[in-house]
Write a structure and sequence with these properties.
single chain; about 500 residues; alpha/beta; N-utilizing Substance Protein B Homolog, Chain A; 4 domains; 8-stranded mixed sheet; 4-stranded antiparallel sheet; about 15% strand; RNA binding; S-adenosyl-L-methionine; RNA-binding
């Protein structure tokens, strides 16, 4: 954008005003929205931080709201506006592209973010259309200039003229194939939608569930707490709830409670580390490793990729009950500090150490030293897109090659580190076949001693069913590995394979 189109404060002006021409609206100057409210401004600033600095909304928004004193309903509005816009960005961009007279990539990024925020209010929130348009125009006038504000007004009025169901029908009709249609309407990159469809089929599920899965990714998850066994019980945790805080039983894990409102840090057990915030899928895969049948001693456990420490803390609590110890390894020093913080409530002597180092070296340094090993492998995170909505727009297929190579090395190292008869849990927060089944297949195929495999899969679904709440039927496929799904289980899409060292 040329300097001639900027005013003295650096804001963009309309073409007519840049030429010295005056434009008028039907509103009197006193009626025009000059700026926006703190909630919308906060949501806009989060989107700019996510775009400009590759930040994560869940790390940016809470401190920003605290600093600006945005609380209560305004904070809830800002949260839904920011997160909802990030989740449904792909859908809104497809709609905006039909209402803007130039390619979206030619718009200034701040202006495009304003349009996305406005589209979400018009189509995705219970905001009266006139308020959604006028407040967004005020935000545009304040943050990107008067000229763009006029454009925002015109574009959002076009968006508002068509109800959402009709927009979605138009988008589906324009797509070249069914998967692309699902991706655009469900606001996911097409490559991710294709990968998820293949993963559904690979798990023995109907690929037609794709739309339900994408919709689940676009639904904000409830906060789930873990009561770490031996440190605090579910009953004790419930008893700590202040007035107005609702805690419901988890669907699967006996350690889980679902938070119905308020800050979890208001619970003393969360504040001091006896409990924590942890997805129920993450809880049950850790519980399954601890419950997997073992031959021989059960004294020393390893979390190979422990950061930020949720699974390590749950395993350490379980180890304490059995007289076992845990070593937690994490390659990144700042994440190792998070692990140490997560473990602060574990009794002395249970955690041997929080080791900072490359997990691929542990098997060579300590061969056969552990009875149970968790490999919570670095992955694309496609199973947690409902929690980190911006991730879907950052990941590319090129990420897979580097990650799957690392995943193979870590799994092979874990098998080296476990003793004969011991068990390794290979876990990813991704259902992508290239990160799950194909990694395990390749590692087991290569691991042979005198032509005989030295490790084998064991029944992961059976281990999961053994740890869920009594009387609960956990729906899983009929394979040896196990895949959880947001639209089926209400958890992140956690994958679990259990491997026993046999030679």
């Amino acid at each position: 954008m040329s300097d001639e189109r900027r005013d003295s404060r650096g804001r963009q002006r309309g073409a007519a005003r840049a030429r010295g021409e005056r434009t008028r609206t039907a509103q009197a100057p006193s009626q025009r929205r000059r700026g926006s409210d703190p909630a919308r401004t906060a949501a806009f600033d989060v989107l700019r931080e996510v775009d400009a600095s590759d930040a994560y909304a869940n790390l940016v928004l809470p401190p920003l709201l605290r600093e600006r004193g945005v609380t209560g309903r305004d904070a809830a509005f800002a949260t839904e506006l920011a997160y909802g816009t990030l989740r449904l960005r792909g859908r809104y961009d497809a709609i905006l592209a039909r209402c803007v007279d130039r390619p979206l990539d030619r718009l200034d990024p701040p202006l495009l973010d304003v349009l996305r925020l406005g589209a979400h209010q018009v189509l995705g929130m219970r905001v009266p259309q006139h308020a959604a348009v006028s407040e967004t125009v005020g935000l545009a006038r304040e943050r990107v200039g008067t000229g763009p504000a006029q454009m925002v007004n015109a574009v959002l009025r076009k968006v508002a003229r068509t109800p959402l169901p009709e927009w979605l029908d138009l988008l589906r009709a324009a797509a070249p194939d069914a998967v692309t249609a699902s991706a655009v309407v469900g606001s996911h990159p097409v490559w991710i939608a294709r990968a998820l469809r293949e993963a559904l089929a690979g798990d023995g599920r109907d690929p037609a569930e794709l739309d339900a899965l994408l919709e689940a990714d676009n639904t904000a998850p409830r906060v789930t707490l873990v009561a770490r066994p031996g440190l605090v019980s579910v009953t004790e945790l419930r008893g700590q709830a202040p007035d107005g805080m609702r805690l419901d039983s988890g669907r699967w894990a006996p350690t889980a409670l679902v938070l119905g409102g308020q800050d979890p840090l208001l619970l003393p057990a969360v504040a001091d580390g006896r409990a924590g915030v942890q997805d129920e899928g993450s809880q049950v895969v850790a519980l399954a490793l601890a419950a997997a049948p073992l031959e021989g001693r059960d004294a020393r456990w390893l979390d190979l990729c422990a950061g930020p420490g949720g699974k390590a803390a749950l395993l350490a609590a379980l180890a304490a009950q059995r007289g076992a110890t845990l070593v937690a390894n994490e390659v990144a020093p700042h994440r190792a500090r998070l692990v140490a913080k997560a473990l602060r409530a574990v009794p002395d002597g249970v955690v041997e150490r929080v080791r900072t180092g490359d997990g691929r070296e542990v098997g060579e340094q300590e061969p056969g030293a552990y009875d149970r090993v968790l490999v919570d492998a670095p992955c694309t995170g496609l199973g947690a897109l409902r929690r980190r909505p911006e991730s879907r727009w950052r990941r590319t297929p090129a990420d897979l090659s580097a990650l799957t190579g690392l995943q193979r090395e870590l799994l092979s190292c874990a098998i080296d580190a476990v003793r004969v008869g011991g068990v390794v849990a290979y876990v990813t927060c991704s259902p992508h076949l290239a990160e799950t089944r194909l990694v395990v297949d390749d590692v087991l195929r290569r691991r042979r001693v005198d032509g005989v495999p030295d490790a084998e899969r064991i029944d992961a679904p059976a281990a999961l069913r053994a740890v869920v709440a009594p009387g609960v039927d956990l729906p899983l496929g009929d394979r040896a590995d196990a895949q959880l799904w947001p639209h089926v289980h209400g958890t992140d899409a956690m994958h679990l394979t259990l491997v026993r060292r046999v030679r």
